[in-house]
User: Fold SDR family NAD(P)-dependent oxidoreductase from Emcibacter nanhaiensis.
Amino acid sequence: MGNQLSEKVALITGASSGIGEGAALALAAEGVKVVVTARRADRLEDLVSKIKDNGGDALAVAGDITDEEFAKSVVARTVEAYGRLDILVNSAGVMALDGVDKADLDKWRHVMNINFFATLYTCTAAIPHLRAQGGGDIINISSTAGRRTAAAIGPYGASKFALNAMTEGLRQEVGGDGIRVCVIEPGATSTEVAESIDDPRKKEFIRHHVTKEGSMKTEDIGKTIVFIISLPRRANVSEILIRPTSDVAAM
Assistant:
């Protein structure tokens, strides 16, 4: 598998922690050259050092992916550094909980900007490069919240539903150009997603949910990404719902 992917170049957003970090490590282990981006430059540098210590090739480009111009520039920087872009993994995300009645509109905008618009920006910037090469892969990280929602998770669920819809529309739009598009919808995965929640009680609830016994690890999602891009080019896994084995409740 390493030989198959060793000439590929990937850009991964939200790579300073969580699923983005797991994706970077998994792809680098397969010989993919990775460009990692997020706002926390120190964490990105630590990740790059870890990848290089293991024989991989990585570049950190710190910045705010919700800034449209930065999102465009990090795609351009990837192509400038490695001469191509084959894989885009959009993992930047945030969780905030709110309702519609008496909504905190700034909170809703913040979540939509990170979970939806940032992905739209990088996809738009990457498509011309992927098309010019004759194909590539775009993988967007959504959530089970993109299939079901609740009053308490208004902005988060709405952003993930929007991301799912955009991803499927994009698949139909660019599949004829050899560009495969996939949305991954993970269930409980041990990450720092709860830390952005401002309500202490809700933060503790989500923190427990994602770290409970049997929760998935970020490397599980990383391996899922490797599986997706390793399939023959004629096969596009367009959607993967992946949950802990012990989570047996109906959707």
